[in-house]
Design a protein that fits this description.
The protein has 240 residues and is α+β, with helices and mostly antiparallel strands. The chain folds into two domains: 73 residues, 2-Layer Sandwich (Gyrase A, domain 2), CATH 3.30.1360; 134 residues, Cyclophilin-like (Cyclophilin, Beta Barrel). It is built from five helices and 13 strands. The strands form three sheets. Strands 5-13-6-7-10-9-12 form a seven-stranded mixed sheet. A four-stranded antiparallel sheet has the order 1-2-4-3, covered by helices on one side. The chain has a two-stranded antiparallel sheet with strand order 8-11. A hairpin with a 2-residue loop joins strand 1 and strand 2. Helix 3 packs across helix 4. The longest helix is centred in the N-terminal third of the chain and has 18 residues. It starts with 6 loop residues before the first strand and ends in a 15-residue tail after the last helix. The C terminus is likely disordered. Keywords: Hydrolase.
């Protein structure tokens, strides 16, 4: 193992941004997770928030208890302990999914474009453990990667005006679960009954950056039993 390379820059009056090599890579994601643990241990109560992403960490500190120069020195000190090749293990999370043409209106599109059956699309989506690389776009929207290369799909040319809560989707080499109803341009393949963001729960999200997610198929009855809700069918002429 060797010491990790990083770049530290100012990101605001009480924030610093830590950058690693800018690519989607499990090894870089592991460095991000390792850095967050070291920073929390070093800065303790001086931290307001840490926002990890694919290859960076935004450090927001309390300007009433410390200052930019002190935080920068503390970060450089603790980040000397970063080691490439080390593996920081997140928790493993299983998310149930009701895969069907009713709950996943783009399953047929993916199957036809790849020359495979809908069952194979579902099988391939379940066969991989996905790393949580980032959380953003909306609270609880976890970017998971990377999908089977055969399932890689571009975003829809025309985004939907409303994607239902719990929609499981694919875009490029990533997959995700929509935590709330919203516009969206990803390819929809199923529905997950698990709440991806609940401000009244602890923790508020079932996954965090660095976790490993596995999707598990369930049938319609199990989906409804777990609290899932099927979207109302679109009426003719109401498509965006």
């Amino acid at each position: 193992m060797s010491q990790a390379q990083y770049h530290l820059t100012t990101a605001g009056e009480n924030a610093l941004m830590l950058y690693f090599d800018q690519r989607i890579d499990p090894a870089i994601s592991a460095l991000v997770q390792q850095a967050c643990q070291l920073i929390r241990a070093e800065l303790t109560d001086d931290i307001i928030d840490l926002l990890p992403s694919y290859a960076s960490v935004l450090v927001i500190y309390n300007p009433f208890t410390t200052d930019h120069y002190q935080v920068q020195a503390q970060l450089r000190h603790c980040l000397k302990q970063l080691q490439t090749g080390s593996h920081t293990q997140g928790k493993r999370v299983e998310l149930p999914v009701y895969y069907s043409e009713q709950s996943g209106p783009d399953l047929t599109l993916i199957a036809n474009s790849k020359g495979i059956s809908i069952d194979e699309v579902i099988q391939r989506h379940q066969a991989i453990s996905y790393r949580v690389y980032a959380i953003g776009f909306a609270p609880g929207f976890a970017y998971l990667g990377e999908v089977d290369p055969l399932l890689q799909m571009p975003r829809l040319a025309t985004p939907r005006a409303k994607v239902p809560r719990g929609a499981v989707a694919i875009a490029d080499r990533q997959t995700a679960v929509y935590p709330a109803a919203s516009p969206g341009g990803w390819n929809l393949i199923g529905l997950c009954p698990v709440a991806m963001f609940n401000p009244n729960a602890s923790p508020v999200m079932p996954v965090a950056v660095g976790d490993e997610v596995r999707f598990v198929a369930i049938d319609k009855n199990e989906f409804l039993r777990l609290g899932g809700e099927l979207p109302e069918p679109e009426l003719p002429g109401n498509k965006p």
